[in-house]
Design a protein that fits this description.
- This protein is mostly helical.
- It is about 40% helix and about 0% strand.
- The chain has helices at about 10-20, 30-35, 50-60, 70-75, 90-100, 115-120.
- It binds guanosine-5'-triphosphate (GTP) and magnesium ion.
- The site of guanosine-5'-triphosphate has 11 residues, from helix 2.
Length: about 120
């Protein structure tokens, strides 16, 4: 059977360590880093008016038990330390984090045909 060797390289792990640097003095920081570097992640860069707030609304509260039904964490998560998804908490951090996770030229710009029916 065909096989492929796939590996997260040191820069991938290092980026994970840097990502939550604002939280480095929190007691849960070591377990957070173990979690966030425990496997591959899917990265997205979203763009649009108010996208930081709308993404966080869709994601729901940090503690899944306080997250509304219909949010990703509310529907799919149980514990704060396993809350499925991350969203930047400010436009400045959005820019910083996208620069951390993507190299120039890796982002593609596209517009769904539905967009003009959702926002104008
Ligand atoms: P992110 O979108 O991942 O940044 O979450 P957030 O903005 O809702 O929360 P915050 O930035 O304050 O914390 C980052 C992550 O650290 C959270 O999503 C949790 O996974 C984890 N975390 C935060 N607070 C706690 C805590 O009290 N205990 C534990 N175990 N993990 C925590
Ligand atoms: Mg956060």
């Amino acid at each position: 059977v065909e096989q492929s060797y796939v590996m997260i390289k040191p820069d991938g792990v290092q980026r994970g360590l840097e990502h939550y640097k604002d939280l480095k003095d929190k007691p849960f920081f070591p377990t957070l880093i173990d979690y966030i570097t425990s496997g591959p992640v899917v990265c997205m860069a979203w763009e649009g008016d108010g996208v930081v707030a709308s993404a966080r609304k869709l994601i729901g509260s940090t503690n899944p038990l306080q997250a509304e039904p219909g949010t990703i964490r509310g529907d799919l998560a149980v514990q704060t330390g396993r809350n499925v998804v991350h969203g930047s908490d400010s436009p400045d951090n959005g820019k910083r984090e996208i620069a951390l996770w993507f190299k120039e030229g890796e982002l593609c710009q596209w517009e769904s045909v539905q967009t003009p029916w959702l926002v104008k």
